[in-house]
Design a protein that fits this description.
Number of domains: 2
Shape: globular
Helix content: 10-25%
Number of helices: 8
Structural class: alpha+beta
Protein name: 4Fe-4S ferredoxin
Largest sheet: 14 strands, mixed
InterPro entries: 4Fe4S_Fe-S-bd, HcyBio, Methan_mark_16
Organism: Methanohalophilus halophilus
Radius of gyration: 23 Å
Number of strands: 24
Length: 426
């Protein structure tokens, strides 16, 4: 069966469209409800995860006292910014590109993702400039001083990602773990929001494409095409949005044992235009494959499903500060990849605004922090494995919230769903 996007848009305008979040629809399928093609017009899907392929383009004036022709080097909060492509020509304006995975020169576990959140929050950032003539200038700016601040995705929102286990006999430092990966397949990490991931709900990209309006970190933006390393089996997307409208709580930085990474959030409205989309939106976690990768060799060793990570688990970490024993060294605080745990006097505090619900704290101190993160169940070299997940690099809790907000925005008309300009070949 097929229908035109225009038909769906007309129903939305008449307030007659049926719009579900992907979670709502999957819950109906799990409950055994009979859902037909004509019963759903749009599904809102979302993900919040570490997405390395992220950069920002910033343009703003700097106060230097005297005009310079070209900047040869710039840092923002000691994070490298790449200059160009245009020379300054004595305008006192910088055009810069900052990578989401760039690392600060003087702050451990601070990088581009942290910088992007600081900028969106309106925090002042320190800009240091070296000119071609060797002169040095410093200034402090905020997003209000930036007429242009645009975030770009180069490869985001993979249909499904992977879980990781270290099968070697030695610890491994990797971006796929918040701390050093323990050896001998004793722990697992994972990424991807499973059944609610946007591209999982439209893997052949029949409903969304070039020009489709989305929410990127809460700001309206647009899909530009397929991302780098995209393939028919694992399609991903490029998109962009204005940072001035972004929501800080949907973005940020995440510390790994290989350095800081960048967190980005997507919410996408998928029009159900044909059977391929309808079949995909009905696919629940149990049917969404999740490769198990060896974190040391970076090769696939097994397959499982996203049910291992997201079915009957805790999406949010429970916090019981009254059970804190005031240990000499607080491991959850020391190792939290978001710096969300700290002490205020003799009381431990969990900052829910920055918490990613990765769950690492619950594996380090199960008295104060509690969360069932699930475990990976698969066969490896003739042996049945059951490896506990100790870190999640996707935040399904906030992804669900974003999908619900997008659903409501479509219904009340504050988000205008549009048809694509051009199809994308996955």
């Amino acid at each position: 069966m097929e229908r035109e996007v225009g038909h769906i848009l007309e129903k939305i305008n008449r307030k007659d469209a049926t719009v579900f979040t992907s979670q709502e629809l999957c819950d109906m399928i799990d409950a055994g409800d009979d859902v037909g093609f004509e019963d759903v017009d749009v599904v809102t899907a979302a993900t919040r995860a570490i997405m390395s392929g992220t950069y920002a383009v910033l343009s703003f004036p700097v106060a230097t006292g005297e005009k310079f022709t070209r900047a040869s080097a710039v840092t923002i909060n000691e994070v490298d910014a790449h200059v160009g492509p245009c020379p300054n020509e004595r305008l006192g304006i910088l055009d810069l590109m900052v990578f989401g995975t760039a690392h600060s020169h003087d702050r451990e576990n601070y990088g581009g993702g942290h910088l992007f959140r600081d900028i969106v929050e309106g925090n002042p950032v320190d800009v240091d400039v070296v000119t071609d003539e060797g002169k040095k200038y410093s200034d402090t700016v905020s997003i209000e001083d930036m007429p242009y601040a645009q975030l770009f995705a180069t490869r985001h929102a993979f249909k499904n990602y992977s879980a990781f286990v270290n099968f070697s006999q030695s610890p491994v430092s990797t971006i796929f773990h918040a701390t050093t990966f323990a050896p001998d397949a004793t722990e697992a990490t994972m990424s991807g929001c499973g059944q609610i991931n946007p591209v999982k709900n439209d893997p052949h990209l029949h409903g969304i494409g070039v020009g489709s309006r989305i929410l990127l970190n809460g700001a309206e933006g647009f899909i530009l095409g397929s991302g780098t390393r995209s393939s028919p089996g694992k399609p991903n997307l490029i998109a962009t949005a204005d940072m001035h409208s972004m929501v800080a709580d949907y973005m940020g930085g995440f510390a790994t044992s290989a350095g800081p990474e960048c967190i980005v959030s997507w919410a996408v409205a998928v029009p159900v235009v044909d059977d391929s989309v309808f079949d995909a939106v009905r696919q629940t976690d149990s049917a969404v494959p999740m490769p198990v990768m060896d974190a040391d060799r970076r090769v696939k060793v097994a397959m499982t499903s996203y049910a291992d990570a997201w079915k009957d688990v805790d999406l949010e970490v429970a916090f019981n500060p009254g059970k804190c024993c005031m240990c000499d060294v607080c491991e959850p605080m020391e190792k939290c990849p978001m710096d969300s745990i700290y002490f205020k006097g003799d009381k431990v505090v969990l900052n829910r605004h920055t918490c990613f619900n990765c769950g690492l704290c619950s594996t380090l101190c199960s008295d104060v922090f509690k969360a069932d993160l699930g475990s990976l169940k698969f066969d490896y070299e003739g042996k049945s494995m059951n490896v506990p997940i100790v870190v999640r690099q996707s935040d399904r809790k906030r992804a669900l919230i974003m999908a619900e907000k997008l659903r409501d925005s479509i219904k009340n008309g504050s988000f205008i769903l549009n048809g694509m300009v051009e199809r994308i070949s996955p």
